[in-house]
Structures are given as structure tokens and as C-alpha cells.
Amino acid sequence: MIKKTDSQFNKPLYILYPGEFYATKEDCVISTVLGSCMAVCLFDVAKRIGGMGIFIVPGTIGTSGIISDAIASKGIGDIELLLGEIVKIGGDRRYLKAKIFGAGYPADSSSQMEQVMNSNIKFIYEYFTLENMTVERSDLGGEFRRRLYFFPWTGKVYRNILQNNEESSEFIKLEQEYIDSEFRQKEKFGRVILFD
Amino acid sequence: MKHILIIDDSPTIRISVEHALKSLGHAMVCAENGRDALGKIDALIAQGHDIALCVLDVNMPEMDGISFLKEFRSRDKFTPVLILTTESEDDKIKEGRSHGASGWIIKPFKPDELLSVAKRFLK
Q1: Is B11's CB within 8 Å of A131's CB?
Q2: What's the pLDDT score for residue A50?
Q3: Single pTM value for the model
Q4: Topology of domain B2-122, CATH
Q5: Is A1 touching B (CB cutoff 8 A)?
Q6: Can you list the domains of chain A with their CATH numbers?
Q7: Which of A98, A192, B44, B81 is most enclosed, with most CB atoms within 10 A?
Q8: How close B68 comes to chain A (CA, Å)?
Q9: What does pLDDT average to over chain A?
């Protein structure tokens, strides 16, 4: 993540890269570019708390649903990282609302990735249904990349469809590296430490 | 009857843990934070039930996992408490251990692994 001062919005601007998450009580803007990754924006307007997480579920989820699926537990873990940070700064998931974006399959994606993206979309809807959390806006799928500007105090999100990939070449490269890494590590779960 | 208590503010995690541990054959009770869990424990004990294992998140509203652990250990020194959390910092893990946690599993968790750890503590 990098921090800039943005003249367009006159607020601190935090730019998130694939695999990162950030939660804050600051009046700021959180921005990213999404291809196949998903961005989850969570916010509590009353408490002026919000955060964004960017991740991918590295594979297709079985027909039994996300509860018993090891790959899905990676995605659940990624959202939990964001939720954990929001709770630490005073948030409560019972009062949070969500906006979700991404899971696109740009024209240069493989057909296998299209299946993964459809599975990711299914995952995210099932997850928020289980969490009983309101999804105020979902903008998922499609053959394009997106740029987001999220305002955690208000929950507002400006979304642009990217026409020119050259402007986002750094994000595209980093996203591909992140996705490759997640697929390589899809059998890797959190540490288990036993105290004797 | 012996119960497993699952304490997490995420309904998804509570259901996932229930699913992972259902083959143990214990009754399972869920709580959404530490305060809720203490109330459920009082109710279970009043009904003559025992707690066999607690699976406990750390970051929760109202009463977090470490605060729950301190309160729980002042009443019960022996029931195993397995922390299941996204927290991975050594200082936090040491804090959990110093307050009597039995183990620490970092999310995302593998259901089979959680089951085998739970079996070990229930022996």
C-alpha cells in the first residue's frame, strides 16, 4: 500500500495492491485497480469506520458450498483479515454494510480463469448471505478492469471501467504475480501452534 | 453432556467450525463474543452440562477473546481453549499462552487439521 495526498478529492489517498487490506477511521480515500481480483469494501457510516480488502479465491469451489470447501476457507480467511482489523478499531460486523467489485475476466484471460471468476462470484454472494450482511452494491464479472475510489466514512464508491490497460500496467503485472502465488499456495493454511 | 463452545463473531466461521467438528459427536453451542459465551457457559452449567472444549476467536466486539480467556480461566483452569484467529503476531500468541490458551490456529484453517487438534485435546 502507498499513501499519497490526492488533489482531486483533497483527502489522503491510500492505494492498495492485490492481496492487501486496510481498515481505517480516517476521512480518506482508498483506491485500487481490479482485474480478476475482488475488492470487498466494508463500512459503518454511523461510526465512520471502513476498510477494503483485495483477494482472489484460488480455484473453483465444489458443489457442497463454501462451508466445507478448503479453497473457500482461503477466501473466508482473507475477508476475516479485513474484518479483524475493522473490529480492532471499534467496528462491529453486525452493523457493517458491504460493496463488492471485480472478478472480471479481461479479454486476455484463459477460459479456466473465467470458470474461477464465476466461482469467486458465487463464493462472495454465499459468504455475505451466511454473514447476514447487507450488500449495498455488487459489480462483478465482465470482460474489463475496474478502478475504484472508496470513501470509508460514507461508504461511497466511484468505479471506472478501464479502457486503457497501459495506464494500469503496474497493477496488471502485480495482480498476475499475486494470482500465480495464490494458486501455488492454495494448499497452504494458517499455522497451528500447540502449547504443552 | 459435554459441549463444545464456539465463540466467534462471524456466523460463517461458527458454521464452518461446527461442520469441521461434527464427527466428534459432541453437542455444540455458539456464541458471538466473549460476553455472550460467559452467559452461555453459566446456562449450560446450571443445566448440569460440562464444557469439553472452547474454540475462541480473538477480535470480537463487546468482549474480545483474550478478555474472555482471562475471565474463563479464573473459573476453570483445565478445559482446553483453542484460539482460532487471523492474529499471527508472536506477542499476541504469547499473550494467549500466558493467559492459559491450549493452542493457537491461524485462519484460514483446514477443517481436517482443526478436527485432529480438537481430538487431541478431547482425549
Answers
A1: yes
A2: 98
A3: 0.93
A4: Rossmann fold (3.40.50)
A5: no
A6: 2-184 (3.30.1330.200)
A7: B81
A8: 16
A9: 92
